[in-house]
Amino acid sequence: MSHGWSARLSCPTATRTQALCDGIRSRDRRCVISGTEAFGAHIYRWTGFEAAHIFPLAYEGSWNDHKHVRWTTIPLVKGRSISSVQNGLLLRSDVH
């Protein structure tokens, strides 16, 4: 079935941890902008969806300088504090 967006997976890069992606997928289960459901989510198929950071990784220094981690209440993913699931959302690949 074609949905008109790319067939990229929701965690395509090594900079994103699997735990972060799993947390975002589990919480959102659909594109938070378009509302499109991840139809294969029940069998862990996330093609066409991407876990995205809200506050970009490129600005991690600013994230740390301004202590934005204080706004996260869910325990952080092992590693960088910017990779809290509260700093992420699930998007369709073409929306991201």
UniProtKB/TrEMBL annotation:
This is HNH nuclease domain-containing protein. The lineage of its organism: Eukaryota, Fungi, Dikarya, Ascomycota, Pezizomycotina. InterPro entries: HNH_nuc. It comes from the Eukaryota. It comes from Lepidopterella palustris CBS 459.81. Residues 31-96 form the HNH nuclease domain. Pfam families: HNH_2.
